[in-house]
Amino acid sequence: MANRWAVWVFLLSFSTFNGFSQAHADNGGRTITLDVVVTDKSGKAISGLQQQDFTIHEDKKPQNITAFEAVQGVDPKSGPPVEIILLMDDVNTKILRVAYEQEQVKKFLQRDGGHLSRPVMLAFLSDKGITTDNEPILDGNALVADLDRNPPSLRTVNRRTQGVYGAGDQLQISINALDQLITAEAAKPGRKLVIWISPGWPYLTGPRIELSSKDQLNLFNEIVKISESLRKGDMTIYSVDPLGTSDAVGVQTTYYENFTKGVKKPSQAQFGDLALQAIAVQSGGRVLSGGNDIAGEIATSAADASNYYVLKFEGAPADGPNEYHTLDVKIGKPGLKALTLTGYYARPGP
């Protein structure tokens, strides 16, 4: 069993990692840009803060903030460009829950009479990968009409067999789809919020899954690629679990917390480091699960596109390739928390 998994890891990593060094090469600069959402204890985004309210720590050392901007308001014509991608995951969501997921997406799109505060694009994940039906638009009613014409349940083809090999297929399809989405969207100007409506894909992490050092290196390369591609593409991942209260005590809802601190070297790499929820936390997004108001959770995620802060600082030089640097943004007011990038991979250079 362990050898079969090792071969699978190598094939997955090779197919997705090949060519990364050219497509996502470092531009030589060390300026790090952070999109920061500040929330209170209830999770509500907070506006009205000033630069002096923020402190950035890199590897526990304070850094000077070189630029600051507060993005507030729902006027899509003001501030930097921002778009929202609503991705409905039919590969990892139980088929009986897909219809409910669709109804909740429609409920969100029809809020405020269908007038969206930021442009929204619909995306769908099936066994064939990610497909999209529109460019980002502000008309929620038009998106609902599109959903009615093409329900997501009809897009899913040949759902994979269950069991350990089915789980492997699910993970491979999901990671390939994430790569596909990054490639398609990262080059666009402005910030992108990807609200991935899914319980997440299989972790495939445990004592029965043994990885060779070569396999771990390939897996580490994939982790680095996704992390850097999201950062440079100004993309934030949000994980919204459509299973609601039926998944409130499931392993998926908390196990990801073991993989949110970042991977510093190949020998630490595990499949769990590619969990949807772990990637969401590390990118500065939210993980929302355990409730049946999926439309409300989508709305909470989408609201972050209209209320956040942009901070810049000069990152520390790296001693070697793919050196992981932890980040921590503190708010100088009690009861407030910052959602932002938790770390990044640096390379030597000026």
Task: Please describe what this structure looks like.
- There is one protein chain.
- The protein is of the alpha/beta class and 350 residues long.
- The protein has one domain (2-10, 73-309): Rossmann fold (3-Layer(aba) Sandwich), CATH 3.40.50.
- The protein has helices spanning 2-17, 20-23, 95-109, 140-149, 164-185, 213-232, 252-255, 276-283, 294-303; strands spanning 31-39, 54-58, 61-63, 67-72, 82-89, 115-126, 129-132, 137-139, 191-197, 235-240, 287-288, 307-314, 323-331, 337-339, 343-346.
- The strands form 3 sheets. Strands 5, 6, 7, 8, 9, 10 and 11 form a 7-stranded mixed beta sheet that branches.
- Strand 2 (54-58) and strand 3 form a beta hairpin.
- Helix 3 runs antiparallel to helix 4.
What's the SSE blueprint?
Elements: H1 2-17, H2 20-23, E1 31-39, E2 54-58, E3 61-63, E4 67-72, E5 82-89, H3 95-109, E6 115-126, E7 129-132, E8 137-139, H4 140-149, H5 164-185, E9 191-197, H6 213-232, E10 235-240, H7 252-255, H8 276-283, E11 287-288, H9 294-303, E12 307-314, E13 323-331, E14 337-339, E15 343-346
Parallel strand pairs: 5-6, 5-9, 9-10, 10-11
Antiparallel strand pairs: 1-12, 1-14, 2-3, 2-13, 4-12, 6-7, 6-8, 13-15
Brief summary:
With 350 residues, the protein is an alpha/beta fold. The protein has helices at residues 2-17, 20-23, 95-109, 140-149, 164-185, 213-232, 252-255, 276-283, 294-303, and strands at 31-39, 54-58, 61-63, 67-72, 82-89, 115-126, 129-132, 137-139, 191-197, 235-240, 287-288, 307-314, 323-331, 337-339, 343-346.
